[in-house]
Amino acid sequence: MGQDPSKPELQTWERVLLSLPEASFSEIIHNHLENEELLKDRERLIRRLISYLKSPRTRNRIISLMDRQDAELLTAIHLLNRPTTENLFSFLEGKRSTLDLYRHILNLEKRLIIYKNHLREEEEIKINPLLHNLLLKRKIINTALLFPYRRCNIIVEDQPPWLTESILLAFLSYLNMNPEIIKSNGRIKKKHQEEIRSIFPGIFKSTPRGRRLDLLLSVLLNTGLVRAVKSRIVPVTRRWEYMGEWDREKLYPYLWSSAISEDQSLPFHIYTKIVWQFILLLDKRKAMELSVMQRLVKLLLLKAKIEDNSKNLLETLIALEVIVHAGGDLYRKNSNLDSFPNKHSDSHSRPSLILQPNFELTLKPGISLSDGFPLALISRIKKYDYYPVYEICRESFIKGLEKTQDTVSLYNHLERVHSSPLPQNVIFTMKNWEQEYGGIKLLSGVILVVDEERRHLIEHTEGMKRWIKATLTPGIYLLDPREEANWKKEIISAGISPVPEIKSPSSSGGDTLEEDFTGIASTFPDLPNLESTFPLDVVSHDECWDWEERGPEEPHGIEKELLNKLRKLDIPDKMRKELEERIKKKLLLFPEQIKPCLTEKEKTEAKGVDNLGKIRLIEIAVKSGTDMLEIIERTSAGSPRKLMLKPVELAKKFSELVLTGITVPGKERVKIPLKKIVIVRKLTG
């Protein structure tokens, strides 16, 4: 990694300095440069600042004055990559108070370590390009500070996460045989609850996100594998076939993500990427506190510009046993995930089932959706276990035929996934059932009726033949409504134009149980490449700074050197106090920067009966457009309330002045009468 910053980054920093208000720019110059002549020639002063920050003496002193909180905040800014102030507040929520964090941001800004790029539409916080590489090289930016972990030994391998293709297939079988399981209030009927409990042991187990059964139903509904139609839950065949083609590495994070919420409008394909990346960043031998794991999830959500849902997401992964308890307050990745789901059965391995002469069907663990779907459709689940047991009966077989008319493919599939030749009595019986079922047909589709004069245009057009599902009688053809665009094009090509509108025999049709998924993209959205900027083990704990012993120049020694210089100056007490405060805030690095010519400190606080002072501070903050206010108000109950807000206006409402502002964080618009404000503090941004 080179030492010099990129030219665009340096130019951005220079433009921000050039645009600073006079007072802010003057303070930077007075703090860091020995001689302030030519104060109006900003470009020349900025060139001097660049030379100053490139000096090894300056750079070593800046590093020596760093403390752990500096490093944590700089690491957060680096990981979030140009965050807003709100992003930082959200990411570090619970670790530090909002007010303390904002004051720290202002401090690092005055120390020239970071800057706010207010030239963009939304203000971004960036690390000074002259120092960024140095902070990385000296390990000040250190992921282990924000994501601490403890190593743990795994004696017994964890059970795999319980939400698998196997349980989806088993529940599909149950729903296919029992579609009307829902009462009018949305709850499962008592009869079916008891039946489900006996077939699926542990399905009613409580988790941080409700019962396993509720999570399973959420997954089925949110992924579109089933639809709720009044009191029925109906499988969507095309969706099962579509998802059966997905790579399992993508399928499982998608399934886990779809359990996060019952809100089907949430971007599950984006959550899939986040969950997938989160799992890859974890190590099964590194346990973390929940708050640390949640911070990592929050980081990924913020980088994806998704609203913070880290708590629900993490609770869902715990409920699904993707994340498991590691003792005490610690959690870790399920040890089975390194090989799951392909450990027990590769999706291309055979055999996947055992079919007995008594019509009992046993599916092997790890069976894929594509292998198991046709089998679950024609059978009835008897017992869900490590080896799920099904039974093929007349009712289940006929229900399966209703979903798939291609029995030739069904028999071929059975032979392909079976461990040995299929029992002949089972095949013979199924073919008899098929023959009985095929004697009567109810067809659904679009009926094309063509008069005798133009019938030949349809029957002799090669492109049209592939879209005709059945010729019911001469001149009457069955078409699939999902293929409307294709067969309409061929009808026009045959010389029949315009194509008439489809007429319905009744204006009030029934519920369509199958959903048209022709609009779904043919491929699952690609997952993002893992970013190399924030693996958890960039720096191990052994390589972290010891913030108490860090070499020849430690912070207390530097502070002592500067205070000794200050004591030798013959200056007024007020100026001495201001300089001492600047030393303690690390704004002054060297003895020669301690000068008795500093301007008088700006007033930043007004309280009590000093209403004119409060008004003045509020007006200055409103005019600046960047300053924040810390407000302590007296509530109606008489208790004090502390707020940090971005002021919008101070205006007279009836007979009193009212401050309007936006809270930070939270972005809530509030109105506070001036008479209720006890203290106003201006936080210069």
Tell me what you see in this structure.
The chain has 685 residues and is an alpha+beta fold. The protein has 6 domains: 7-147, Arc Repressor Mutant, subunit A (Orthogonal Bundle), CATH 1.10.10; 165-338, no CATH class; 353-438, no CATH class; 446-493, no CATH class; 555-593, no CATH class; 605-683, SH3 type barrels (Roll). It is 41% helix and 15% strand. A 6-stranded antiparallel sheet has the order 18-23-19-20-21-22, sandwiched between helices. A 4-stranded antiparallel sheet has the order 3-8-10-9. A 4-stranded antiparallel sheet has the order 11-12-14-13. Helix 14 crosses helix 15, helix 15 packs across helix 16 (290-303) and helix 19 (394-403) crosses helix 21.
In short:
The protein is of the alpha+beta class.
Main features:
alpha+beta, 4-stranded antiparallel sheet, 685 residues, 6-stranded antiparallel sheet, Arc Repressor Mutant, subunit A
Summed up, the helix count is 27
How many separate domains? 6
Report, as a whole number of angstroms, the end-to-end distance: 31 Å
Low-confidence stretches: 343-348, 506-545
